[in-house]
Amino acid sequence: MKLSKLEAALVEELARLEIIDCHEHLPPEKTRVAAQVDVFTLFSHYTRHDLAVAGMSEVQYQGLYNRDIPLGRRWAIFEPFWERIRWASYARAALLAAKRFYGADDINAQTAEAISEAMQKANTPGIYEQVLREACNIRTALTQCGSTDLGGTPLLTPVMPMVHELEAWQALSRPPFEPSTSLGPGPAAAVRSLDDYLDAVRRYVARVKAEGAVGLKMMSNPYKDPRRDEASSAFESLRSGAVARLPVPNPLRDYVVDQTIAIATELDMVVCVHTGYWGDFRTLDPLHMIPLLQRHPRARFDIYHVGYPWMREALMLGKGFANVWLNFCWTHIISQKFAMDALDEAIDLVPMNKLLAFGGDYATPVEKVYGHLVMAREDIARVLARRIEDGQMTDTQALALARKWFVENPVALYRLEP
Ligand SMILES: [Zn+2]
Fold first, then answer.
1. What phi, psi does 46 have (nearest 5°)?
2. Which CATH class is domain 127-413?
3. What is residue 241's predicted lDDT score, i.e. its pLDDT?
4. Please, which residues have CB less than 5 A from ligand 1, an ion?
5. pTM higher than 0.70, yes or no?
6. Mean pLDDT computed over 264-283
7. Taking 80 as the threshold, does the pLDDT of residue 113 lie above it?
8. Residue closest to 201 by CA, chosen among 184, 217, 224
9. Are 399 and 7 in contact (CB under 8 A)?
10. What would the DSSP string read from start to end of 284-350?
11. How far does the centroid of ligand 1 lie from the alpha carbon of residue 27, in Å?
């Protein structure tokens, strides 16, 4: 992005901030270091969806990661699809990462081999320190990889799935109703009643909190009002084997999710909510959250992704509910245009203690966190620069806002060390 002088100066100031990365799926570093990597690792995450939509078959996609096939041949398969997707925001994060870490001005037939070699050389212990700390100036990244065992580094802070989305739910959906051992310490207790199930959920939440988790993640699916009697009979129909699985949605899920939010609130944990875009996103409208927001006024809801494509609906959650924060994680690589529009409108609408600026939302390709962050800084600088030029705020005031969004708000919301 070509930046104006003011935008460039703001970007420079933003790069000096030590920030909180408000959402990742990064595994422990040892998992990344153990993985085979090459240039296609940079295309192993969201770009995968763009490649599929551009016409790449699943077999072709899987072939990219078959390291028995020479790189040149894999590149020849990849290249026509890459030319179709290279202008999208997802691709830009890969291009920025390849340039910053592997010295490549472009990802193409001429550079693919050299990027791969450089990536393999760099894939050693310390890569998280190098990417997250040194290149990104990240203090800690809130990461969801299904585990609280992140290798003991302060660079990663766990957020865990709500238990209904974890094995317990699947275990419950199948006889003999033994909860997964990951639910609680000590020997697994049989789940014979709805109360046993809720006890298991409570033990799970307490355990992951004790292990350092600061939030529980759920999806903004449609939930009906929780009814204990209906949840109980749904549980009983599973337990007795009358049905093998419950349809989705169902009253047991609605009740357990509601109870889990209450438990998270009691234990002072954040409820993280994926809203919008993913698969059949009709089931992920941010407005589905309103009954839960109303029923749990003391809970703290971190609304992810600004609900794309329901940006205004998500902004209105931030406008109308004291228990809502709006998290711009993932947004800058969905579309920089959207992220800038949403941020600009959010400044008009929402109190400034309620915005979180950034979450890379990556797993294996940690380098792309940097690419995403560069894009986020550009978006934020452009929005703030326009307000400064319009005479609405001074440089100092603009930077104070950015500091809130990048650091102070996530620290306050997640009760992180100041
Ligand atoms: Zn995510």
1. -60, -35
2. alpha beta
3. 77
4. 361
5. yes
6. 96
7. yes
8. 184
9. no
10. G-GGGGHHHHHH-TTS-EEEEGGGTT-HHHHHHHHHH-TTEEEE-TTHHHH-HHHHHHHHHHHHHHS
11. 13
